[in-house]
Write a structure and sequence with these properties.
two-stranded antiparallel ribbon; single chain; alpha+beta; Arc Repressor Mutant, subunit A; 105 residues; globular
């Protein structure tokens, strides 16, 4: 019998297994849901929700760096920021390395 793996269950497992702090989990959740996304995009989203409405960009960049160091996030390219016109980095969740399933019957 062939069964598919639900991506949300994989992500939930990774979060639980890594025991991410609440702030890392918040940043990672935005990247998973909206990535590729810039640090400013993550900040804009989180500032609309409690308890992160008072966060500044350095909180995002710090948590993003930690997530990259842990293997949860990777660079996804560049984009031009609409407001500043500057080139910004985009981030996305690291693709899962799931072993291929073999269907026997």
């Amino acid at each position: 019998m062939h069964t598919a793996v639900n991506i949300t269950s994989i992500e939930a497992y990774r979060l639980k297994a890594a025991k991410l702090s609440e702030s890392r989990r918040a940043v990672y959740a935005v990247i998973v849901q909206y990535g590729p996304i810039s640090n400013k995009g993550i900040l804009d989203f989180l500032q609309r929700t409690e308890p992160w409405e008072h966060w500044e960009i350095n909180k995002i960049t710090g948590r993003n760096k930690e997530l990259r160091d842990m293997g949860f996030v990777e660079h996804a390219g560049y984009a031009m920021d609409d407001k500043s016109g500057c080139k910004v980095h985009l981030w996305r969740p690291m693709p899962e390395r799931v072993e291929p399933q073999i269907k026997l019957f």
